[in-house]
Every structure is written in C-alpha cells, then in structure tokens.
Amino acid sequence: MTDRTDIFAGDDPFEIARRWLAEATETELNDPNAMALSTVDADGLPNVRMVLLKDITDDAFWFYTNYDSVKGQELQGAGKAAIVLHWKSLRRQLRVRGTVTRDDGPEADAYYASRSLKSRLGAWASKQSRPLSSRTALMAEVAKMTARHGTNPPRPPFWGGFRINPVEIEFWADGAFRLHDRFVWRREDPDKAWEITRLNP
Description:
- With 201 residues, the chain is α+β, with helices and mostly antiparallel strands.
- It folds into two domains: 6-104 and 160-199, Electron Transport, Fmn-binding Protein, Chain A (Pnp Oxidase, Chain A); 116-156, no CATH class.
- Helix content is 28%, strand content 34%.
- The protein is built from five helices and nine strands.
- Strands 1, 2, 3, 4, 5, 6, 7, 8 and 9 form a nine-stranded antiparallel β-sheet that branches.
- It is elongated.
- Its EC number is 1.4.3.5.
- Substrate binds at residues 54, 111, 115, 119, 178-180.
- This is Pyridoxine/pyridoxamine 5'-phosphate oxidase.
C-alpha cells in the first residue's frame, strides 16, 4: 500500500505495535502499557476494564490476571476478546480483536517470579472480583498468606497469563480537522496472511 509510510510503515503488525509502545514509553506519564480489555459474559453483555499489557510477541498480546476473576471467567467462556491502547501524548491508538488462550506455563511462572514480593502475596490473598467485607479483612488475608508462603511464594494455580491471537489489528493516528489515519490488518485466522486496508476516519 503506497501511502502506508512513516509511523505506519512495516510488513509486520506486531513489530509496528512494539515500535508504537516503545515510543509511548518515552512520552506517556503513567502506564504506557495500560489497555482497556473488553469481554462478554454468558449472556453476551459486554464488560470492559483497564489492565496492563505485559508483552507483544511475534503472534500475540499478553497479559496476566486471576483466572477465577470475572474477566478470567469471561475470557475462558467466550474464548475471544478485544483490547485498545490509547496514547494521548502521541495522539494514537491501537485496537486488537482476536481469540484468547490461557497460558499457565513457564512464561507465567517467570513473570510471576519477577513481580515484587508484596504483589505475589497479594495475588494469593485476593479473591478477585468477589465480595470483600473490609480492607482490614483483605490485609489479614495478606498476613495469612505471608505466614504460609514466606518470601518465595509459588505462582498460585488460579493466576497466570492470557494471550490474544489477533484476527484484526487497527492502527489509528490523529489527523488535522479530525481526518485521522487508520489502517486495519485483518486475517481469518492466525495461520492466514494479513490483508491491509486504509479506513475512513
């Protein structure tokens, strides 16, 4: 596509996404990897919340959470999700839709081990998305988990990674007079070639 130049240039959407994230890391004040994650429940009712993107590999976007949380259950139930990263400093956004797979293998173990001790213990203590009587009760649970697991807690069996394998990736950049630039990469499934289309703003 002849006019896909500058920030949109490249033959690999994952490489473009990594480049945009690296640029955002230099310009965003807080959490350049913050993304809105959209799921649906069993009735098809949408749900969205902010989570942190942890990696962009050559075929997927990765994040980590509690498998028993609402988002964890919805991700596993539907097997599909969408994310958007919006960088105000760059006036850009990245949208992704695709299939979701759970990953609780070595990558999840390594990421869990890299987190601070308090975050690792917090993952054990929090029954994410379920009712909580008070913050005091939560801190008591943290203390109990600290006593049980010490300074090297293993990764909880209910906590780990999800990977989104995209069937659609859209790159959006702000344009004068709201004449934005949008390029969408689409494929029927992860084994097929990408088709690239410029979209109207």
